[in-house]
């Protein structure tokens, strides 16, 4: 059955890739992003409204805009994919306080308040799916990423709590936790990590990013899209509060 899926951070990277996959599968998608021009272009690239791709400018840290989200959608949301993310790489001593707070607002407060905004409608219709795009850093840590890791860890506790609060209805909430995915965000991380660790970008990829992974490979966006599609299906109706780790064996150690 076709669903209407809201995806944040959908103008590029993981969000855009999942949106493309879902539209190809016959779903309609509201691509939400803070960059109006970028998200409008992204939706147009996917065929626009005729193809089921709707653009929406949304800053997930703007609480008024988030609370008004249900009234701005072309139809009620069957699913929410909390994907919007940013990164800053620095030792805690050098980490600007405003940047630390911003990462938490985008990647933890934002998903919580978006879920809050859409849950009443899902509950009223008796069905809903919430998927958080977490990270391998939802379950392990690395230096120089304290805010990002705190936010991504927080998503797991948030999902568990919401799962307990929605156990009486067909609503699920889960978190996808991939190892490194080759996106513009990760490309910037490679450069920043090279500076912090005083090594080449090639060494960052091989010695920091891929070294812990037995499979030695970046996760492909299609893997995340397929996993999200499964979580949207009826076959996953009793999978909730779970952390799905796509890590090439990283956490087996």
TrEMBL record:
One of its GO terms (molecular function) is 3-hydroxybutyrate dehydrogenase activity. The keyword S-adenosyl-L-methionine does not apply. Its EC number is 1.1.1.30. InterPro entries: 3-OHbutyrate_DH, NAD(P)-bd_dom_sf, SDR, SDR_fam. Keywords: Oxidoreductase. The keyword Oxidoreductase applies. NCBIfam families: PHB_DH, PRK12429.1. Belongs to the short-chain dehydrogenases/reductases (SDR) family. This is 3-hydroxybutyrate dehydrogenase.
């Amino acid at each position: 059955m076709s669903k209407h899926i809201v995806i944040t951070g959908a103008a590029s990277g993981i969000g855009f890739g999942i949106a493309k996959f879902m539209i190809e599968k016959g779903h309609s998608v509201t691509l939400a992003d803070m960059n109006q021009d970028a998200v409008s272009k992204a939706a147009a690239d996917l065929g626009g409204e005729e193809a089921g791709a709707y653009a929406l400018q949304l800053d997930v840290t703007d609480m008024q805009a988030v609370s008004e989200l249900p009234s701005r959608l072309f139809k009620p949301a069957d699913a929410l994919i909390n994907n919007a993310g940013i990164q800053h790489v620095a030792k805690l001593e050098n980490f600007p306080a405003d940047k630390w707070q911003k990462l938490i607002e985008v990647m933890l407060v934002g998903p919580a308040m978006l879920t809050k905004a859409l849950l009443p409608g899902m509950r009223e219709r008796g069905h809903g799916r919430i998927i958080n795009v977490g990270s391998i850093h939802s379950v392990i840590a690395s230096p120089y990423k304290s805010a990002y890791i705190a936010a991504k860890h927080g998503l797991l506790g948030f999902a568990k709590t919401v799962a307990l609060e929605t156990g009486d209805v067909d609503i699920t909430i889960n978190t996808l936790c991939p190892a490194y995915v080759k996106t513009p965000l990760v490309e910037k991380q490679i450069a920043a990590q090279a500076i912090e660790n005083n090594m080449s970008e090639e060494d960052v990829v091989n010695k920091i990013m891929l070294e812990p992974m037995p499979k030695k490979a970046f996760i492909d966006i299609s893997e995340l899209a397929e996993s999200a599609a499964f979580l949207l299906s009826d076959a996953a109706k009793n999978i909730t509060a779970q952390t799905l780790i796509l890590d090439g064996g990283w956490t087996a150690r």
